[in-house]
Amino acid sequence: MTIPPRYAPCFVLQKAQVLCVIWFEDALWHHGVPTCVFDLYLLVRDIDLAAEVLLNKGWKDAPPPTKFTFNFLDPHPEIARRRLDAPGANEINPPGEVSPEPATTVLLKAADFKFPAEKFAPTPASLEGYFPPLPVLTDALIDSLLDAPHDCRLQSYMALQLSYLYGYVCELKEQSFSKVIKYENRQFHHDALSGVSVGTLPIITIERQVRDELRKECRMEGRLSTSTTAPLRRVASIEAITRYSALKEAELVRKMPQY
Question: CA-CA distances (angstroms) from residue 82 to 10, 12, 41?
Fold first, then answer.
């Protein structure tokens, strides 16, 4: 099997029995978003262990970003990460193209980005296995957006990732897709499909409250949040009115056409 140089770290980690999953722009690209790719982001369980494996195979710690570059993680020193360089350089690519050159690899802790440990592919048979399934990616990005500190760079970046997914990936728009994401995220999903600007601050606040209520409902009823059979129970009438009023006040509800 030919290993694309960009994704060589995945196979090196696999040989050392260190599980990883490809994240952010590369994951979006894999699912059909015509995005540029930059650094290669990998989610791992243990950043230090993964870094040690790559360092032993020739990777080196990347120099600190210059003052002329900016990364969405820069304002968030609380988020653990490790940046490693392989030989070669990665340039910004045209939309829909993945650089064949080695890139800076950024190791991130899976738990920090809401990726469930049980969703790691233990022994991927091909490169395909290192990319997250679309439902898992969608759930993790929704949770990352709703749980991020309010009005911060990380939150804006998660909103951007989700806007790309909902804007370009047709599978998300299929009626059956809502059944394969977590129950607690289905209202967010329906709102995103209906045209609500789910990445704006007023709506994020509302969506977080609704998500938490649905999560609480799952716990009270003893239902798994990943249940594919339970229909989404709409928010109680008074809550629905309040929620709609907030959406309308923020001028983010799609207006009905006038005839």
Answer: 15, 16, 10
